[in-house]
Amino acid sequence: MLQKLYDKYVCPHLIDFFMQTKAFMKQREKIIPFASGRVLEIGIGSGLNFQFYDKTKVNEVFAVEPDEVLYRKAKESASKNNLKLNIKQIKAEELPFDENSFDTVISTYTMCSISGLNSAMKEINRVMKPDSLLLFSEHGKSPDKNILNWQKRLNGIQKRIAGGCHLDVDIPNEIKKADFKIEAISSMYAPGPKFLNYHYWGQATPSK
Ligand SMILES: C[S@@+](CC[C@H](N)C(=O)[O-])C[C@H]1O[C@@H](n2cnc3c(N)ncnc32)[C@H](O)[C@@H]1O
Fold first, then answer.
1. Neighbour-count burial for 72-104, b at 16+ CB within 10 Å, e otherwise
2. What residue's CA is closest to ligand 1, atom 25?
3. What's the topology of domain 2-206?
4. Distance 145 CA to ligand 1 centre (A)
5. CB of 93 closer than 6 angstroms to any ligand 1 atom
6. Please, which contacts does 164-168 make with residues 24 or more away whose CB atoms are closer than 8 Å?
7. Beta strand extents in 10-77 (DSSP E only)
8. CA of 130 to the centre of ligand 1 (A)
9. Tens digit of each residue's pLDDT, the chain (208 residues)
10. Please, what is the end-to-end C-alpha distance for the chain in angstroms?
11. How many CB atoms within 10 Å of residue 20?
12. What is the model's pTM?
């Protein structure tokens, strides 16, 4: 009961607050300007990527976001950024889009929260055009054993306080497992607690 109230009324606002911290915003700036054509954002949150879009290259923006508060915030942000957003309040595990229909799919700090991650990644692959780009920036599994052990210990509490977020997702492996070819990837600790701040970012293409 308490968890449900927390998830509904508190958690989305906390997510929105933490997703705006400097380290996360800097990472967005590194990948979002590559978006072009017909774009789909997965678990868009409150729409924090909009400010980094190159609007001369982006034609249409679609998004999915299951959380009601974040869904509404994303709509507001789109209108503030003069962006026409086609957003659905659904999860990414089943996408109501045709095969081969997007030029770019964006996932920023969403893979950690998707419970059926492999299904969602396969769905993303399905809706992407053969020569399209998956742009990602995610936090995940630390390469340091000591930090990874902490990630495993803290996973339980993190899931409860941060909307189902897992700390130790093996991001490159999850991308490859869903038939993507990673074209570019970088990783590093961003400033902040190490268990939360091992970031992976880059580009992948669907193998079709
Ligand atoms: C940490 S937030 C990141 C939000 C946003 N992408 C950003 O960069 O600010 C994780 C997001 O994933 C969304 N999410 C959780 N489960 C999901 C699912 N199954 N499919 C799609 N999005 C999901 C959450 O509602 C939340 O908006």
1. ebbbebbeeeeeebebeeebbbebebeeeebbb
2. 67
3. Rossmann fold (3.40.50)
4. 27
5. yes
6. 164/113, 164/115, 165/112, 165/113, 166/112, 166/113, 167/112, 167/139, 167/140, 167/195, 167/196, 168/140, 168/141, 168/142
7. 37-42, 58-64
8. 25
9. 899 999 999 999 999 999 999 999 999 999 999 999 999 999 999 999 999 999 999 999 999 999 999 999 999 999 999 999 999 999 999 999 999 999 999 999 999 999 999 999 999 999 999 999 999 999 999 999 999 999 999 999 999 999 999 999 999 999 999 999 999 999 999 999 999 999 999 999 999 8
10. 45
11. 12
12. 0.98
| 109 pocket-lining for ligand 1 (C-beta < 6 Å) | yes
Cα(45) to centroid(ligand 1), Å: 6
CA of 70, closest atom in ligand 1: 27
Kindly list the domain boundaries of the chain, sorted by start residue. 2-206
Q: 183 C-alpha vs ligand 1 centroid, how far in Å? A: 24
C-beta 45 within 6 A of ligand 1: yes
